[in-house]
Structures are given as structure tokens and as C-alpha cells.
Amino acid sequence: MNADLFIPRSLDEALSVVQTHGAGLLVMGGGTMMMAHINEGIFFPQKVMSLARAGLSGVYRNGHTQIGATTHLTDVSQIADYPILAEAAFQIGGPAIRNMGTIGGNLYMPQPAGDLAVPLLAYDAHVELASASASRTISLEDFLAEPRSHRGVHELLVAVHLPDPTGYAAYLKLGRREANTPSVVAVGVRVVMDKQGQISDARLALGAVGSFAFRAKNAEAALIGQSLNTKSIADAAQIAMEESNPFTDALATAWYRRRMVGVFVKRTLEQLAK
Amino acid sequence: MSDNNQMPAIGVSMKRIDAFGKVTGQTPYPSDLNMDGQLWMKMRFSDRVHARVVSIDTRRAEAYPGVVRIFTARDVPVNEYGLVMKDQPVICGPGSTILGADVVRCLADVVAVVVADTEENAAAAAPLIDIEYQDLPTVFDPEDAMQDGAPLLHHDKPNNIIVHYKIRKGEMSEGWAKSDVILEGEFSTGYQEHAYLQPEAGLGYIDEQGRVTVVVAGQWVHEDQEQIYHALNLPPDQVRVIYPAIGGAFGGREDMSVQIVLALAAWKLGRPVKIIWSREESILYHHKRHPVKIRAKWGATRDGKLVAAEATVIGDAGAYNYTTNKVMGNAHLMVTGPYEIPYVQVDTYGVYTNNIMTGAFRGFGGPQGAFAAEGMMNRLAEALGLDPVDFRLRNVIHEGSIMTTGTPPPPGVTIQQTIEAGAIESGAWSHNGQGWQKSITQQPRESYKRRGIGFACGFKNIGYSFGFPEQNWATIELRGAGVIEEVTVRAAGADVGQGAHTIFVQMTAEAVGVPVEKVRLIGHDTAETQTSGSSSASRMTFMTGNAIRGAAELALKKWQDEERPAIATYQYRPPATTTLDKETGYGTPNFAYGYVVEVAEVEVDLETGMVNLVRVTCANDVGKVLNRILVEGQVEGAVVQAQGYAIMEHLVSKEGRVLNPFLSTYLIPTVYDIPVEVKSVLLENPIPIGPWGARGMAEMPFIPLAPAIASAIHDATGIWFDHLPFIPDRIVEGLREHGLGAIV
């Protein structure tokens, strides 16, 4: 079996490959998930494009922060301005995976993989999508929720945009082992406090407990106007459990995942309360 | 026999003879070998868990580019195989020589074998084989399978029962009457995947002498050879099996995977044929550790003497026997532990189902038996208000004790010394005038975490049991003129990664009295060696050591008689064992035992149910330490493998289908998960029949760890967990039932 392999040397070149080949084209960032499937013989694509040399890597500051789609997880794990993004990247895979895997590819991973969406939702990230004829920037939340069928087959995710971070953030992931393991649950929170110590803005993102990573908006709303105390934390944890829509797989049951949402929302908020 | 001036060759941590080649990547494993003009093979496995194969249409696959030949059941001269019972077709389908070989009984059955010019073409053609099945009724729970009217997998095994072992020792009603405290328990254990580094692979070809040759990784070259020549109906000397380096085995390579079909293809095509299984194929198509259900009832007097024990043990064999009858035999002996119990009744069953087959895995039934035995011992100690160490010491076997089989254990009974050493060296127990006492466990600062320390012990046979023929051959050649300049030892025992070859060289040097540098080993090749039996049952050092000592003695005598070269061959046979009486279990099942104790310290997260194994002390009476670093490596490896078994590894099977056949979803411990310390306490109480007193030891440290962890979790939480593995879902569920754990 042979595949047509494209290794474009620029974004324009990449977009023109996408324009020509569209739906039948497998686009790879680092290939850490797709190559495993290909090597195991689970499927074999006819056309593959690697974005490794399309010039889409790098972290730029220009009023806000822009992270190129093929920036490696290792580099993402060193972005000091967004500590829980760095932390989440560091907890993915092992060094070899982080040296190959990319932020853009991670956002296409099916659950329970794709941890980076969790801190990125907490930081209000947007994603920039481009085609040969146009580009659009939408919130990560909308991107994740968007049914795959609605995504343009001629579009590429080219960058992640982040506003300057405000408030305090925390991130915790539960895996069945210490490293190199998919999430049972991943929780990212960020809260902004007013002068009275009350929460004026809150983001609470959950991963591995739904068909995609999402914001637990009822729990966020419940936190507004509260200080972080035992009761407000317990309430938010309870609401987040109710908002999650977990699944059963070989790693954990849905029953267990839902309970761990409660535990880890509590633990992340307790970290912020300290 | 050693020259007094010479450094001893045993008892030192000699560097492994295979170390340099392996760490530099030069040593070939089966998948690294290639030959000119070789073809590639892919196996087409069953799509159904239980069905009659009505027809196989290979036309579409044969038309695929590069396809050379497709083999089906019709092509196998004697279409059956199996290590103990030949109950499995090599290839399932119509037109077979064997009755019933047209039925697939699990998803690991093979329906066709494709040979093509490239691996890709073979893989692409395999799914194009059109197979018509006629589904048959299925059964997945061994207790259901034992019922009258359950679907029958093999017609010669009514109620799907492969074996039913009994122990009948004393009149049980008397035993219960004499007991002050009687406890009952129900235990279950899970599957375990061997997860060796190297998935199954091999190369078949016709060698320069015209022999059908298979290069593969296994555990017993001569048994692989026998399985092949039986199925191909060839004379034994027309089949040759060679093992290059073996990337781990743990029992998982005892049975056939690619051996017979590679030989078949090479023989029929006259060309080299190669196959490499993917990790997914490896997990889906080789056997697993037996899941076992155990119901137990034990009684003791108030002053802590065991009186009676009763158990029912049911093991899921899957669709074929593999080594089920032997594994369940071991579980049968070990389910009552290394204890003196006057009244015993045990019923042990191995049962066919349409699940993936189960078989040998380090410990071979011992871990399942010990999980229940030690679980009952720890509960009884608690119920009696006795320290678990004290309670055991009041009941352990000694020289001359009568075991459940009505006969004494083989000489060298040291469970008492092993328990005392393990308790003291763990630092968690101390002995004062009153008895044994456990220290208070230091608790972590976080309110949601608790630490606990647990205790368990066990025993395991060395070598084959129940009258299975046990032998081991070695040949030693001494070359030189005045002095011995070169020693060649021929010993077939498989070095599966444990370092057997290094030990063979050390033992040869010691037996002959030369430095190890003068010894050359000719290892696993049926054309060069005689049988050693398998690398299993903690037997290879013991058996080969005795064969080497015998061969060395004979060769040295010839050397003294000035024969040049001096060549001698010796067959070692240990004391005979017997089967167990069908009704009472009376017999002498084993010729040697090793004894082991483990103390485990765990930290339980009460909210997540995650159990962290912090520290393990393992006391193991190995008889004689022949190479300390290799022995400690076996202890540490066994502890980590048993940690995975107890806490992490969870093979999910639904209606005969394994749902997580990848190492990304079937999780085994990584370096971040293993204990911060594994303390190996090696006792050296020699046994008279051991080479230099050595006992086998490689399985023993696996056996008591799961019950030691259960005991530690109980110490931390006050709750007994009786179902392996201790995955966090189950722990959280158990904690919640007792009002512990998360507020939400």
C-alpha cells in the first residue's frame, strides 16, 4: 500500500494542498496518534499531509499571545505566562510524544485524549482557521462543539490565540497511572477576584467527561459573587458533576468519572483558595 | 571441585553474558531476522466466538497482488495441537483431518493463513477471505458453563469441565465442631496480559540439511519441535526449532502462536516465510492468566490454631486447555496456603468457555490460590485479635507436617524462618517477649490519604508437578592438552530474559573448576541440544544446574582418564511426583518448594480510590544465591508485575471480546508507578537436592503481593477488598459503602 505524502513548505502551499484534495486528505501535526493507528494497521490513509515544515510553529507576543498550530507540546510546556497550559502540556505522554505532538493536533484528539483544550478553555482561547480563500477566528469553545461535518474540509487550524491571562488558575489531571496515560478527568479553572475577595469571573473547564472538552457554565455561574470557601467549592463541584456527561471506557466507568469531576473540581478550587 | 586459588564462579554478581549485545542493539530477536527471498505471513483470525465454519472462499484474496498461497484447515496433516491436551485445531475450517476442527470456539482461533510477497499485501489480502459461519450457542461465565444443558465446547468434556480436583482430608463436620471462629469469604481474580517487550514473531525456512526450521521465541525448543512435527506428521529429526534472543515470556510463550503455521508454510512452499504480530494481535491472540472465583470457609480455635478449611475454586480456561489442568492443580494446592490444617475439603475446577484461552503466567495458579488463602488468614487473625505474623507462625508447616495431600512437604521447609526474616527486615514488625507486634503506621498530612502496611506469605513448587515427566539434559565437552583450555556446555534451557544463560555459564565454570571466560554455551537449538524442559515453574536454574553438575562430573572423570576431548552427557531426573487421588487428593505432587513473604506499604487516596504501592519487603528463601544481581532483578520484576496485577492491569472482556488490546488502554506500571523501595531479603537455607543448595525463585515474589496489598489497604481503611484488580472504581465503591471517601 502506498500513500500520497505532501510536505508543504509554507502555509500557502499547505492550503493549496487542502484546497485540491479536501476530504480525502489526512492532515498530521506530529502524527503521535495517527501514526500509531497506521502502524497497527487499523487504517491506512490514501493521502497524507504533514504540517511539520509549513512554518506554523512558534509562540509570538503581539498584544496577545499566538501559538502556532504545529508548536510542539515540549515548547508549549515552557510557556511561563500560561502556567496551567504549560502544566497540562507537560503531563501529556512522555518526552518523545511531547517532542512530536503539537498543540493543533492535540485539539483534534478524540476524548479522553486532547488535554490541552481544558486549560485553553480556561484561558478563553480562540482558534484561527484558514482556507485558500478566507480565514476566520472563533472561540475554542465553539470550535470544539462544532460538529465535524460543519468544519470546512478545505480549512486548516493555523494558530491558537490567547488573551493576556488574568486571575488565578489551577489544573489537575487524574490518570490511572503517573505518566503516559489518558485522562480519567482533567479540570482547569481560572478565577478573577474583586477587591472584596469575591469571584468576579470564573472559568471551569472539564476534559474526558463528555464527547469533547467543555466549560461547566452552571458551576462557573454559581461561583460568581462568592468567595472561595468550603460551601462554594462543594456547590461548584456538585454542579459540575451534574453538568458532565461522562462515558465508560477501559480506563474508568462513567460512574467513577462523574465522581472524580466532583473531587477534582474541589481540589483545583482548594488550590486557588490557598 | 573448584581450585582453591580460583575465584568462585557462583555467588558473585557476574555481568550477564548477553548484556553487551542487548544494550548495543546488536542481538537479534526473531523479528530482526530476514532471509533472501522471504515471503510474509498474516493470520486471519475468527470473526465469531463460537461457530461452525461452513465454507471458506479464498478466491478474492488469492487474486490480490502479491499473494502466493492461502492455507486452510485442509492443508494441515494432523490438525491439532496443545501443550498438555491436543484440543485445539491449528487452523479451523472444513475438510480437516480431525473431528470438530471445523468449529471456532473463541476469537483467537485461526481460520486461514495468507502468504504474500510483502507484509502489506498479506495484510490487505487477509480480510478478503470470505468465511461463512453458522453461529453456535455461546457461554462466557464458567459457572454457567458447568450447568447441565450449557453449550458444550468439546464433546469429550461433559459440562465443559476439563478437570475437577478434590481434597478430602478428615470429616469436615468434626472440623467445624472443633472451631471457635469460622469465617467465610468470596474472592475473585482477574485476567492478566503478559505484556512482554517483544510481540510474537518468527521465521520459517528449510535449513541446509533439508529440515523444516522455525526461528522463534519460546520457552522450550523441544516442545515447540514436538508440536510442529505432530501437526505436520513429520519425523522429529525433520523439524528444527531455534531460539535467538527472547524478549520476555512469563509463561506467555509456553503455548504455540506462530510456530506451526510458519513451519507449515515453509515446508509447503520451500521458501522462507516471516511473520510479526502487532501488539494488538499479541494481546488478542495469546493466552492470559486465569480469572478465578474462590469461595472459602476457614475455622480456627480461640488460641489461634487452624482447624478446618474448605474451598471451591473455579478457573475460566477459555476455549482450550493450554495448561489449565496444571494451573488449576497449583491453585488447588495453594488455596489452603503453607499451613497445617487437620480438616480440609477443596474442589477445584477448570472450565471451558468461549472467552480467550488462559494458561501459564508467572506463579501458575499460585497467586490466585494465595489471594484467597492469605485473605482468609488475615481476616482470621483480625477476628481472633492476633497479630498476623503470630497467627501464621502458629500454623505454618514444618519438616514432616502433613499437607492437604496427606503427605509431607519435600525437605527444606523454611516458611517459619522466611516469615520471621520478612517481618523483621520490613521494619514494620518487632518481636518482644509477648510475641510479634506491628508498629504504628505514619500517616500522611492530607486528610484524604491513608497509609497501611500488610502482610502475606506463600509457597511455590519448583519444577513440574503431578507426575508430569521431569528431566533435563546437559552435555559438557572439555578441550585442551595438559589443562582444560576450553569448556563447551550444551544446555537447551530458554533464556527468556531472566539471565539463564549467564547462570548456566557460571554453574559450568564452578562445576568444572575453570574461570567463566573458558566456558562457551551452545543454547536453544534442537539440532544441537537435548531437551531441558521449559523455562517455567521456577525450574531452569535448579534443573539445568543439576544436569550440568552431573555432566561435569562425568566429563572430568573422562578427562582424568585422559580422553581428549572429554565429552559427557547427563540426564538429571528429580525425585518422582505423583498425580493426586481422584477422590481424596492423596499424593506427592511436588519435589521441592520455595518460600516467600511480602510486606507491602500502600497509600490510599480515599477520594479517588487510587492505591499507591510505596514500599515492599520481599523475603525469599532461594537456597543459594548464585548471582545476587540477577536474583534481585527477578524479585523486583516480580513485584512490579504483581503490582500491575493487583492494582492497575485490567483486561476488559465482554462476550469473549477483549476491548482494550493496546498498551495505551491496558495499562501496566511505568517507572513512575513502581515502589520507591523493593527490599530483597534473600535467605539461603539450602535444599539437599538443589545445585549448590539452590531452589528456584522467579515466581515466588509474585505470589503473596496481591494479598499483602489487600491487607495493607485494610490496614489503611478498615475494609477488605476481595476482587482483583483493585481498580479505583472498585475502591471508591467499597469506600462509599462504608461511608468513607469523597463528600460529593
Which features characterize this protein?
heterodimer, A: alpha+beta, Enolase-like, domain 1, 2 domains, 11 helices, 12 strands, globular, B: 744 residues, Aldehyde Oxidoreductase, domain 3, Aldehyde Oxidoreductase, domain 4, 3 domains, 7-stranded mixed beta sheet
How would you explain this protein's 3D organization?
The complex is a heterodimer of chains A (274) and B (744). Helix content of chain A is 34%, strand content 24%. Chain A has helices at residues 11-21, 34-39, 73-76, 83-90, 95-100, 103-106, 117-122, 140-145, 217-223, 230-243, 254-273, and strands at residues 4-6, 25-28, 47-50, 59-61, 65-68, 126-130, 135-139, 156-162, 168-175, 183-193, 199-207, 214-215. In chain A, the strands form three sheets. Chain A has a five-stranded antiparallel β-sheet. The model of chain A has no long low-confidence stretch (mean pLDDT 94). By secondary structure, chain B is α+β, with helices and mostly antiparallel strands. Chain B has three domains: 33-136 and 200-276, Aldehyde oxidase/xanthine dehydrogenase, a/b hammerhead (Aldehyde Oxidoreductase, domain 3); 292-465 and 583-737, Aldehyde oxidase/xanthine dehydrogenase, molybdopterin binding domain (Aldehyde Oxidoreductase, domain 4, 2-Layer Sandwich); 471-572, 2-Layer Sandwich (Aldehyde Oxidoreductase, domain 4), CATH 3.30.365.10. Helix content of chain B is 24%, strand content 25%. In chain B, a hairpin with a 2-residue loop joins strand 25 and strand 26. Chain A binds chain B through residues 1, 36, 39-41, 174, 176-182, 184, 234, 237-238, 241, 249-253, 255-256, 259-260, 262-263, 266, and chain B through 120, 123-124, 278-280, 607-610, 648, 650, 652, 659-660, 662, 664-667, 669-670, 672-673, 727-729, 732, 742-744.
